[in-house]
Amino acid sequence: MKLLCLSDTHCEKLEDLPKKVVRLMEEVDAVIHAGDFTSLSLYEEMERKKEVFAVYGNSDEEELKKLLPEETTFEVEGVRFGVVHKGNYLNEFYDLGYKAKELGVKVLVFGHIHRFVLQQFGDIIVLCPGSPTKPRLSVASCAILNVENRKVEVEFVIADEIACGMDVRLET
Questions:
Q1: What is the value of pTM for the model shown?
Q2: pLDDT by residue (tens digit) across 23-54?
Q3: Would residue 170 count as lying in a domain?
Q4: Total number of domains constituting the chain
Q5: CA distance linking residue 3 with residue 168, whole number of Å
Q6: CA-CA distance, 129 to 33, in Å (whole number)?
Q7: At what angle do helices 40-49 and 19-27 cross, to 10 degrees?
Q8: Residue 171 in domain
Q9: Is residue 34 part of a domain?
């Protein structure tokens, strides 16, 4: 099974996403979204196209916060997945490894930080796909997860050729 993994899309509708992400959505079996759709309409558009495993984020509309859980778990091809938006990042993502154990999952997808992170703690994978629209100190990104025979292959995808921006003003 092929999954598109997203977070922090921060847009109103599907056409606001990079064309590459929209194209990838057509090629996968389902979508994992770790929160901050921002709009209910984007979530509804995604859900009409694919099965969506999602949680709400801190920037989501109240309707989404009522509709989606704060964390969720599900199984694909014999692999347990968990999704949260904000994690505890005190110990360089080690705490998310413990969160995965708490949820009983082998793959924990998180968001909020707007940059790609992939770490393995023993047999647990912790993944932030980054943001395809508002990256921070990174390129715009998402991930493709290929799940087969109880194994997960993670592919980092540059979603758009924009580099993360910070507004910089030089005083002369």
A1: 0.91
A2: 999 999 999 999 999 999 999 999 999 999 99
A3: no
A4: 1
A5: 36
A6: 9
A7: 40
A8: no
A9: yes
